[in-house]
């Protein structure tokens, strides 16, 4: 079963996909958000078909104390729109520090600042998805 991991931000959506066995996550794309959410969801729908996705995993940006702040509220609203547009199960996963982990990985790989900026969101999506896969949660 393929799972699509999403790191939803105001300007971009990082997208990662699991392998068919659910062992590894690969980052695949950064969607530049449009003014109209339907365009963002349409692109996700195309990727769902292309990769035969059966479930979404959306990173939830929680505060360090575990509460959901303004960005988390935006992600919840996005999830509601996603559920209405694409009929697939959606799981939510705590994404605290996923961008920090992705940034650290890119720094260790000596990726330039300009290149990091282009891929950080899809790397964060892969970190979120890999954390979920490694946890054994289903």
UniProtKB/TrEMBL annotation:
GO molecular function: hydrolase activity, acting on ester bonds; nuclease activity
Pfam name, any one: RuvX
Subcellular location, principal: cytoplasm
Localization, UniProt: Cytoplasm
EC number(s) reported in the record: 3.1.-.-
A single cellular component GO annotation: cytosol
Record SMART domains: YqgFc (SM00732)
Record keywords, A-Z: Cytoplasm, Hydrolase, Nuclease, Ribosome biogenesis
Task performed by this protein: Could be a nuclease involved in processing of the 5'-end of pre-16S rRNA.
PANTHER family: POLYNUCLEOTIDYL TRANSFERASE, RIBONUCLEASE H-LIKE SUPERFAMILY PROTEIN
Family classification: Belongs to the YqgF HJR family.
Name of the protein: Putative pre-16S rRNA nuclease
Chain's gene name: ruvX
């Amino acid at each position: 079963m393929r799972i699509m991991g999403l790191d939803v931000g105001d300007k971009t959506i990082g997208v990662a996909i699991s392998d068919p066995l659910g062992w590894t996550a690969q980052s695949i794309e950064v969607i530049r958000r449009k003014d109209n959410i339907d365009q963002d969801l349409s692109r996700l729908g195309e990727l769902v078909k292309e990769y035969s996705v059966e479930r979404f995993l959306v990173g939830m940006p929680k505060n360090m104390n575990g509460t959901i702040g303004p960005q988390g509220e935006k992600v919840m609203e996005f999830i509601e729109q996603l559920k209405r547009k694409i009929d697939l199960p959606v799981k939510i996963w705590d994404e605290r520090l996923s961008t920090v982990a992705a940034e650290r990985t890119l720094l260790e790989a000596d990726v330039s600042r300009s290149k990091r900026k282009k891929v950080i969101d899809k790397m964060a999506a892969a970190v979120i998805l890999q954390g979920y896969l490694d946890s054994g949660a289903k």
